Amino acid sequence: MTEPERRRTGRRASDSITGIAFEDAFVALTDGILISDGHGSVLSANPAAFRLLGEDKLLGRPFEDLLLVSGAITVQNPEGQAIRRAWFPREDRMGVLEIVSTPLAGSSPRATIHTVRDVTASAELLRLKEEFLLDVAHELRTPIAVLTASLDLVHQDAISMPREELRTMVGTLRRSALRLEHLVENLLDAGSIEAGTFEVRAAPTSIKAILEDSLLFVRSVFDSKGQQLVTHFGRGTDRVVCDPRRTGQVFANLLGNAGKYGTEGSEITLRTESAAGYVKVTVHNDGPTIPPDELARLFQRFFRSHTVRGEAGGLGLGLTICRAIVQAQGGEIGVDSAPERGTSVHFTLPKARELAQEAGLA
Ligand SMILES: Nc1ncnc2c1ncn2[C@@H]1O[C@H](COP(=O)(O)OP(=O)(O)OP(=O)(O)O)[C@@H](O)[C@H]1O
Ligand SMILES: [Mg+2]
Prior knowledge:
- Helices cover 44% and strands 23% of the residues.
- It is α+β, with helices and mostly antiparallel strands.
- β4 and β5 (94-103) form a beta hairpin.
- The longest helix is centred in the middle third of the chain and has 38 residues, at 120-157.
- It is elongated.
- Magnesium ion (MG) binds at residues 253, 256-257, 314, 318.
């Protein structure tokens, strides 16, 4: 077979040697392939086409009718080729199919080959990214507006301003700057998780000390909503092996969420207990809970439950970062949420071995 001929037919010279038949490939493909005749009726279809289109009967049916049901829209139409998107019901929610229809040269009347691909995941990611860009702009705008307004006041009146007022103003400036720093850190961390360059440096350390540091970031949230943090430390649960700074981020994110999504004046609890070589930390709050079908997606980048969207700001990155940190330290993280129980997020940290054990004496 000559090179141009091979390119045109798609066949390789070695096909007969390897024994791969085109029919076998057609059956094994995970993308759906259908061929319709010159009148648009389906002539043949592979198993994936039946599965993706959710149909028991395809042969002999007009291809366009299959798409009418799912309300396909044309997204692109380069010369001779129609690229369409269609909605279709999946087990738990609606999915998106991309259908590329290419007329086959040489057949008369013109037959068409259609490939059907499930693009739900990439369509969803694209939608989340678009929302995410708006969310980033929105999240940055608030602290920047506060910074600018406070700086304007300080600029005009710093000399005549009473000391106490100046102190309050500087406090506001600091909180806004911290908020910005936190947002940028989250964005950078999410980027390095995606790039696979995310790192933790574990060392023996104290949970109480880490909690103390992280409270600097979340105290203002609790205070502004009149919330109370209640802690229960189990016996022998203070010494763990983890990256103190990163674990501080986990505490700050989880406590920040509890404050943000918990109701005004409510109690937020933090509990530590021993769990087979690990310390289990649980943060609990009341407030709007997460529907069961959304629970599994909370750790996905940019995902935010519809129960809180519009209620409180956020980028949907906190839990993604928490999971990366906890897992990199050998622990696990999970969420439990139900209207009668409220929301609990728990994670584990490896317990530090006793000194005697570390010295190899035990
Ligand atoms: N304690 C909680 N109570 C109720 N819902 C929660 C709680 N923690 C997380 N969620 C839900 O999980 C989603 C993802 O949380 P995550 O911390 O990843 O993002 P975020 O808080 O929306 O934004 P970010 O943390 O990036 O500022 C939240 O938007 C919210 O819907
Ligand atoms: Mg959060």
